[in-house]
Amino acid sequence: MRFSKKTYYILIIILLFIIPILVNQLMSFKVTKVYGDTNTWIGFLGSYIGAIISGIVTVFGVLLTIKFTREESKKDKLPEKINNLEECLDYIEDVLEDLDVLRRNDLSEILYKKPSDRQKMLFDVDSNYLLVKRQKFNDFMKTHVKKIRGYTVRVDTQAYQAFRKFTDKLDADYRNSIGLIESSLRGFQMHVTDNYIETHDVIITSHDHTLDEIDLNEEDAQEIERLKSDLYYKESDYIYELDEAYYQLKNALEDILVKLTNEFDR
């Protein structure tokens, strides 16, 4: 149970009046034989109870001092926290600009190229029909994330919680979009190695060759074209999901910045 400062003061005043009465009343009890006279026992009880109260007051004073010191320390750190948040928000703005560039697809590619042949900015399919993560993707998932984490851990728990929510969304968005294509490509690679091992065993078993050297039948050729096309569209959707995740983090950190700024202005 929490009490206000006013309640504590009232309790102390009441105790100051009750204690003398209590000490006097204690001497009227005849529970057992009492050694010594009344004046001696009154003096002892007064000292005993006074020592207890003095200890409580001392502890209360120490707690108030600790609380005050923590509040002052927190206030002293506010400018540093605000500075870290502002730098983090500036960094996120730069990341959002990079994402904006990725969203601007080349019109000539959209008009004249098949989806499977269009440029993919974050991913690609290698010569062995596996998903390749480009450096740009690694920047968004590792370099940028690591930098932002460094800022948020220097702010407070709330900022770090916003960061954790952000990384959870990144992981979920990847699994629900690109992860499905990645899994399908692995399955297609296994299909090729299983079904063409008899006719193209040299290519499949040799490190000097790649699976795209195999002349696929019409059905398999259409399947890999479909997967490449799906990857293009999934990547486009994924870029928008990345953009949304960074925007959500930016908005959450801006709210925290407003809160810290208001605390600093008090």
Describe this entry's structure for a reader.
A hairpin with a 5-residue loop joins strand 1 (123-125) and strand 2. The protein has 266 residues and is an all-alpha fold. The chain has helices at residues 5-26, 38-103, 107-112, 135-152, 157-176, 178-195, 201-205, 218-265, and strands at 123-125, 131-133. It starts with a helix and ends with a helix. The chain has a two-stranded antiparallel sheet with strand order 1-2. It folds into two domains: 5-71; 77-265, no CATH class. Helix content is 76%, strand content 2%.
Radius of gyration: 36 Å
Summarize the main sheet: 2 strands, antiparallel
Number of helices: 8
Mean pLDDT, to the nearest integer, reads 83
Alpha-beta content class: mainly alpha
SSE arrangement, N to C: HHHEEHHHHH
Strand element count: 2
Indicate how many domains the architecture comprises.
Answer: 2
Strand coverage percent: under 5%
Shape: elongated
Portion in helices: over 70%
State the end-to-end distance: 28 Å
Give, in spatial order, the strands making up the sheet with the most strands. 1-2
What is the compact description of this entry?
With 266 residues, the chain is an all-alpha fold. The protein has helices at 5-26, 38-103, 107-112, 135-152, 157-176, 178-195, 201-205, 218-265, and strands at residues 123-125, 131-133.
Summarize the topology.
Blueprint: H1 5-26, H2 38-103, H3 107-112, E1 123-125, E2 131-133, H4 135-152, H5 157-176, H6 178-195, H7 201-205, H8 218-265
Antiparallel strand pairs: 1-2
Helix pairs in contact: 1-2, 2-4, 2-8, 4-5, 5-8, 6-8
